[in-house]
């Protein structure tokens, strides 16, 4: 997969730069604001998922393989 959290960061900063353009027509600004809202909504989901993955990794690091059956995405079996 080519998308990384650093790519998300770059997209967010690029959108911020577009929103900061001072000579933007009002219609264009409205469209960029809507686009920014959509990007932020997706970015929130991506970062929430990354946080959940980090929590699972911490559980594994703290408790070892005994937690794997409860963490199907990192090695346990899903029923």
Characterise the protein shown here.
There is one protein chain. This protein is mostly helical and 79 residues long. The protein has one domain (5-74). The radius of gyration is 19 Å and the shape is rod-shaped. It has helices at 5-19, 26-63. Helix 1 (5-19) packs antiparallel against helix 2 (26-63). It is built from two helices and no strands. The chain starts with a helix and ends in a 16-residue tail after the last helix.
Task: Give the biggest beta sheet.
Answer: none
Identify the overall geometry: rod-shaped
Strand content: under 5%
Find the structural class using helix and strand composition: mainly alpha
Q: What's the overall average pLDDT, rounded?
A: 87
Total helical segments: 2
Helix proportion of residues, in percent? 55-70%
Based on the model shown, name its key terms:
79 residues; mainly alpha; 2 helices; 67% helix
Map the helices and strands.
Blueprint: H1 5-19, H2 26-63
Helix pairs in contact: 1-2
Brief rundown of the structure:
By secondary structure, the chain is mainly α. Helices cover 67% and strands 0% of the residues. The two termini are 27 Å apart.
